[in-house]
Amino acid sequence: MLKHRLITGPLLSIALIALMYFDNRIGAITCECGTSVQCLLQPGLLIALLAMVAAPLVALEFGAMANNASIRCSIPALILSMEAWIIAMYLLPPTMPATKAIAMFATIMIASVALSIILLSKGKDLRGVIAGSTYTVATAAYVAMGFGLLLLIRRDHSAWWIIGIIATVKMCDTGAFFVGCSIGKRKMIPWVSPAKSWEGLFGGLATASLTAVGLAALNNQYLSNEPTITLGYAAFLGILFGAVGQIGDLLISVFKRDSGIKDSSTVLPGLGGILDVLDSLLLVSAIAYWLLP
């Protein structure tokens, strides 16, 4: 497993860095389509496309967990709901009044609930429709909104800031894994995640903090158009992002334990499924949006 992780992880990192590089290039293109038309070539296009490609895979993973937990789930509604949220958050005009934006998101939510109920009611079997439609809409919103908040951050900042958020969170995971494997003895929440230890957590938080400080120094030195981040604040953000990321990991672990599976899927050798990679990032995106300068 470690061998596969050491191969898949770097390959994913290289692909992500390349994607962010080209997203920066696309975001630098000036839109001349006029004020009445939303330009599709705004910052975050490649991130939005990546999210839209990942959405069906995530839906299948949530569907498998629901099936194991005896919950009826509409995968088509799950996919359509996630795609709608992602597209809406990418195309959301910065000048749109707050009431219009709320109305748009409310419309998507209502349509998602209605579609889920309709699809789950086909075949005249109404058992589990309430639980199934709730599960479908809630999981779709959780994943898509996590991605969407990264899109909103990208709108105001360089794509390298998205890399910084991901790197900080994933370095916490990496530090926790290696420290936990080396000296971890005191289990955190064994009934949710048996492998996590307090030693691993503290090692991960230290790694995340050091990573954030290093990235802040690089930002201050080379990204002159971005806000300066003090190293002390970066250290704080690293610890906070790492801690919140671990909570996000545990939240999806609850789903997996309830459904009796270890990994959400095996699509990424050594890492598990798409959700196993995203779990710690989705919750952090909400914190990052409000705390980054």
Number of separate structural domains: 2
**Roughly how many Å is the radius of gyration?**
20 Å
Main beta sheet strand tally, sense and closure: none
Q: Globular, elongated, flat, extended or rod-shaped: what is the shape?
A: globular
End-to-end distance: 38 Å
Q: Whole-number average pLDDT?
A: 91
In N-to-C order, the SSE pattern is: HHHHHHHHH
The total count of strands amounts to 0
The proportion of strand residues reads under 5%
How helix-rich are the residues, as a percent range? over 70%
In DSSP terms (H or I, runs of 4 or more residues), the helix count works out at: 9
Low-confidence stretches: 34-38
Structural class by secondary-structure content: mainly alpha
Care to give the gist of this entry?
With 293 residues, this protein is mainly α. 73% of the residues lie in helices and 0% in strands.
